[in-house]
Amino acid sequence: MVAPVLKSFQAEVVALSKRSQEAEAAFLSVYKQLIEAPDPVPACEVARGPDDRLQHPSFDS
């Protein structure tokens, strides 16, 4: 009577452990790719730069 419940519980624990390991491996894979990516701040500053030099029209006539 207890054996089938225990086996089901054990199977669920094994499935959750496998899922956890796969999720951690996927996260680590994405993290490794992101850590090697260049810093986007300089490119964002260059892209933002020309707009800062433009003079906006004044409507206070």
Which structural class is indicated by helix and strand composition?
A: mainly alpha
Principal-axis shape equals elongated
User: Which sheet architecture does the biggest sheet show?
Assistant: none
The chain-level mean pLDDT equals 87
* Radius of gyration, taken over Cα atoms and rounded to an integer in Å: 27 Å
**Uncertain ranges:** none
Intertermini distance: 89 Å
Strand content: under 5%
Task: Tell me which oligomeric state these chains represent.
Answer: single chain
| Annotation field: number of helices | 2
What is the string of helix and strand elements?
Answer: HH
Helix share bin = over 70%
Question: What's the SSE blueprint?
Answer:
Layout: H1 2-35, H2 41-53
Give the key terms.
61 residues, mainly alpha, elongated, Cut like homeobox 2, coiled coil, DNA-binding transcription factor activity, RNA polymerase II-specific, Cux_N
Summarize the model shown:
This protein is an all-alpha fold and 61 residues long. It has helices at residues 2-35, 41-53.
